[in-house]
Specification:
219 residues; mainly beta; eight-stranded antiparallel beta barrel; 1 helix; 11 strands; 8% helix
Length: 219
């Protein structure tokens, strides 16, 4: 957790500097999150669901199902310079491309509930998903996704010990800027599952997390 929280700290206390002018503020907040990923049977996916006490809930979802296959000779090149190309993964002349589907989406109306010691957790809301059909060997790289709005439910059960973390940081420019932040929280590895329309999966890895923070800025 030290690296992500340090990154949030730098972003949080640097913003007032860019704004300019006298400014004194004291803010605080809390957040909860569930993360899970799954793989197997030609499928890989992940979900990150979180809720911020100041900004509300959100989720990021991704799943791809398919495989990398050896393309026949004469595989067409992408028509768009920004489109990924099939990969040459051997020392010889073989070219491989992904064939399958990729589904991705997000939720902005979401609520996350975690028990106090992270024994259980749920995230419920509505997500918008987009599915692209990919056949890189045939020059089909998606770009025309089918969209749908689905009910999203993520469940998690804590496994292993409950871990705690805390830390602080500061940034100071004499006579110009002084900011400091404190944070603390708990996290726990978890099993779990996701149900989101066509995406139904059981986690192969997951965790739950809850954190609170406070910040003082004087510029």
């Amino acid at each position: 957790m030290a690296v992500p929280m340090a990154g949030l700290l730098v972003m949080a206390i640097a913003a007032p500097v860019l704004a300019g002018g006298p400014n004194v503020s004291n803010t605080s907040g809390s957040g909860t999150s569930i993360y899970g990923e799954w793989s197997g049977d030609r499928t890989y996916g992940y979900v990150f669901a979180g809720e911020d006490s100041n900004k509300g809930g959100f989720a990021d979802i991704y799943q791809e199902t398919g495989e990398w296959v050896e393309c026949a000779s004469g595989t067409p090149a992408p028509t768009d310079a920004g489109t990924p190309s099939p990969k040459d993964t051997t020392p010889g002349d073989a070219v491989y491309g992904f064939v399958g589907t990729r589904t991705y989406g997000y939720a902005t109306d979401l609520h996350v509930t975690l028990s106090r010691r992270l024994e259980t957790g749920t995230a419920t809301g509505t997500a918008e998903l987009f599915t692209e059909t990919i056949d890189e060997c045939a020059g089909i790289y998606g770009g025309d996704p089918v969209s749908e709005t689905v009910a999203l439910t993520v469940t998690a059960t804590g496994v292993g010990p409950l871990a705690s973390f805390r830390g602080s940081g500061s940034y100071k420019i004499p006579s110009e800027f002084n900011g400091h932040q404190n944070y603390r929280g708990t996290e726990r590895q978890a099993s779990g599952s996701i149900d989101a329309g066509a995406i139904e999966a059981t986690f192969t890895f997951g965790y739950m997390n809850q954190v609170s923070w406070s910040e003082h800025v004087n510029s």
